[in-house]
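Appendix B. Raw example, untouched.
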Amino acid sequence: AIVPTLQLPMSMFRFCFIAIFALAGCQSPYVIHLPTKTLDTSGPVSIDVRSFGGDVTIVADPSVTGVTVWVLQRDVGAHRQDQLVQQIELSADVERSSIGEIVHIVVSDTGGPLRTIRADVTVRANTIHGVSIETEHGDVVVVGITGYLNIRTSDGDVRIVTPKAMTDPVAIENRRGDILYRVRRESSGMIDAIAMNGTATLELHYGDGVILPGTTSDHLIANFNNGTNPVIMRTVDGNVRISVVADPMGSEPLFNTDWITW
């Protein structure tokens, strides 16, 4: 078995990401754009998304005031002769507590038993500290955040890329998809990553790290920067890739560009 090792720095390529928001104006007989919701918030927020299925994109964008929630309904089983009607419901509200503001977003399917409807959710906020996402049959993209992560999806890839230090607990579960976790050099963690029928790797370009006993090609047990915060990742029929670099956004390697940044 090939044991993951700390990899040496390698040449990176800078490139432009494709902005998903540019697609918002595209019309199709298979999609419906729900009205954008804008929520008033006064500081860093935690984002909690509960969706029956579809892509979820969370972006910390300093140019945004408050929180915007945009949802697109897709019917993956529609035929051109079908009349597409809205079959999803969206609720979004702000919970204010002593520990800060939490934005709760719930998307539910009101359609029939065929389950051909997907809801693609995009959330933008000025500052995001903490993200919780539950969906299926969709990609999850989280950009520019800090704080804890709690993510569950299937049949899509999970991509976490942030220029902020990540020192809080992380839990990511996927099925039939990859997990990419790309953070800056000040981040830390105690890694326990399993990729059934895949590989789990750590690329430590900066900082201190150690691969711990019990590590195999599909089960990575490691520590970087003396972290005590758990970084737990699980996927089936996919790979886990953890990268610690100086500039997670600008040095993103050229692989897939079908996701966004600001």
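End of appendix B.
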